[in-house]
């Protein structure tokens, strides 16, 4: 580090004075400066800008392991520990902001459906289990409410809706989009929390009409709906918490681009063997 400091200042100050100030020998500094760059250092210098580019392309949301997986997928040979070391050296950190979720108790609702999953978030194929949840996003024009449905098998967002009001129509619209995109099989499990938008008669009747089996997490237990919770954590940590939206329309456009352009098509999932949801579905259909 002292030699590097001298090198940055040698055009301004005499090398002899810099060496004396930092208590190093001039011969040692010149030997360090004129020494050929090692293969390891050269490889690091080549890889570092690539890491920065990937970090930006993935919305600054990946840790060392996922960055390493992206590089491997692009044919760049390097070790996981080297990626971790260079990532730390360059100050590349995944964007994470902790937020508190306010849970509001609703009264006079139909009794909740039994929990069909019991925190077992594994299924054998597409369109066997869908998980849903909703959240709110701040804008300067007020809250934007977002509802989403995910296919548990591939973690793909198959239905979503956004609105200025957190009413039952919001979740019904997300469900309608999912039904348009996917084939509903008899006995498909629909899992959500006990929110009023999912417990209401209109939503439950729609599930019955479609032949779905309703399932609900226990009251106040976020772990019972962990996959949907994880999706919104990703959305907020990698997009929402780092933006200041002026209007709901602006937020809607950004969220749409994140879900359809990045999350479904590009974002790697550890639970999917470091594949994106769409790539995981494609490989599953090929096998």
TrEMBL record:
Domain Integrase catalytic: 110-285
GO BP term (any one): DNA integration
Pfam families for this protein: HTH_21, rve, rve_2
Gene3D superfamilies: Ribonuclease H-like superfamily/Ribonuclease H
Molecular functions (GO terms): nucleic acid binding
SUPFAM superfamilies per record: Ribonuclease H-like
Chain coiled-coil ranges: none
Protein name according to UniProt: Integrase catalytic domain-containing protein
Organism per entry: Nitrospira lenta
